Automatic annotation (TrEMBL):
Pathway membership, UniProt: Carbohydrate metabolism; galactose metabolism
Name listed for the protein in its UniProt record: UDP-glucose 4-epimerase
Highest taxon listed in the record's lineage: Bacteria
Organism listed in the record: Paracoccus benzoatiresistens
Span of domain NAD-dependent epimerase/dehydratase: 4-225
SUPFAM superfamilies: NAD(P)-binding Rossmann-fold domains (SSF51735)
Family note: Belongs to the NAD(P)-dependent epimerase/dehydratase family.
Length: 311
């Protein structure tokens, strides 16, 4: 059993990682700036409310901990280019500072949530493996790559055991309404509220969608896995935005007619991740098929539609 600090553990993905860590028998502390949007605090979990950018808060949160899962981010791809300096300060500088505080506290294991959709830039391969060149076209992706490089440096110089998971496009219960990252949640919430769906571009953009339960299970396994480095984490399969629209119509049992808008410059046309490396290293594989996962999201939205505090 490990005592794990989940930084950003009240967010969409972080909250599922907390569940998986508890299910795998770990002790969990969460550091986040705010409580979870959809659930009360969990019994048995220790919550520290504050920022991981604060050294004092980190010292408190790291006490007695032997591993960290770092899920916090102050930006998403679509917001990061508006203020790259804030992106660098809030994500890169704060993470590099956290590495120093972890070293001082003797915490030598870190699982970091990187981004398979942005670190490679515009892929030159049908299916992208970890050896593909890193050429991000958003500040968000550049910062993720820079953090991965600092993790490598910290490993070489100070023995940090790190796993950077280059996450594809997660979806599932607790994905918030605002939808600035995550089209499946965004589309399903909009359908539930009777609002129109907007598609950037012609809907041919292809992404690799992974159910958040599958990814959270991987993170919890990664905490105790004796491996180091950067690993893709997706389903290994692609679906176009138009296919997601169709699947959304199917699970919501209604006809959806999206509004097509001009494409966005930071959206890469196609990313499907090769996940052989992590499968082989950890013996993990995603299990939830897309349509079944979307049905779970839809059912969850039906149960939570009335909640005022939609993230
Ligand atoms: N959602 C996606 O599509 C996606 C895809 C690839 C990678 N990622 C990465 O996964 C991670 C989690 O994403 P998510 O979708 O769960 O985001 P989220 O916004 O739902 O969760 C992030 C959490 O971090 C917290 N946080 C932000 N800044 C903080 C700070 N300074 N100190 C403490 N807590 C802070 C937020 O309050 C929030 O609860 C991020 O690193 C993101 O870049 C997400």
């Amino acid at each position: 059993m490990h005592h794990v600090l989940v930084v950003g553990g009240c967010g969409f993905i972080g909250s599922h990682i907390v569940d998986s860590l508890l299910a795998q028998g770990h002790r969990v502390r969460v550091l986040d700036m705010r409580p979870e949007a959809f659930r009360p605090p969990l019994p048995g979990v220790d919550y520290v409310i504050g920022s991981f950018a604060s050294e004092a808060t980190l010292h408190e949160a790291l006490q007695g901990v032997d591993a960290v899962v770092h899920t916090a981010s102050i930006t998403v791809p679509s917001t990061s280019n508006a203020d790259p300096v804030a992106d660098i300060q809030g994500n890169l500088v704060a993470t590099v500072r956290m590495l120093r505080v972890m070293r001082q506290a003797g915490v030598r294991k870190l699982v970091f949530l990187s981004s398979g959709g942005t670190v490679y830039g515009i892929p030159t391969a049908e299916v992208v493996d970890e050896s593909h060149p890193l050429a991000p076209i958003s500040s968000y992706g550049i910062v993720k790559v820079a953090i991965e490089q600092y993790l490598h440096m910290e490993h070489r110089l100070h023995g940090l055991d790190y796993i950077a998971l280059r996450l594809a496009n997660p979806y599932g219960p607790r994905q918030g309404y605002n939808g600035i990252q995550g089209i499946i949640g965004n589309f399903l919430w909009k359908i539930a509220f009777g609002e129109p769906i907007e598609v950037w571009g012609d809907g041919s953009v292809v992404r690799d969608f992974i159910h958040v339960h599958d990814f959270a299970e991987l993170c919890a396994l990664a905490v105790k896995a004796p491996i180091i480095g950067c690993f893709n984490a997706g389903s290994g399969q692609g679906a176009s935005v138009n296919e997601i629209v169709q699947a959304a119509s199917q699970v919501a049992n209604c006809r959806v007619r999206p509004i097509y808008k001009p494409g966005r410059s930071f959206d890469v046309p196609r990313v499907i991740l090769d996940i052989s490396r992590i499968k082989q290293a950890i013996g993990w594989a995603p299990r939830i098929p897309l349509i079944e996962g979307m049905r779970q999201s839809w059912d969850w939205i039906q149960e939570h539609q009335a909640i005022d505090n939609i993230a």
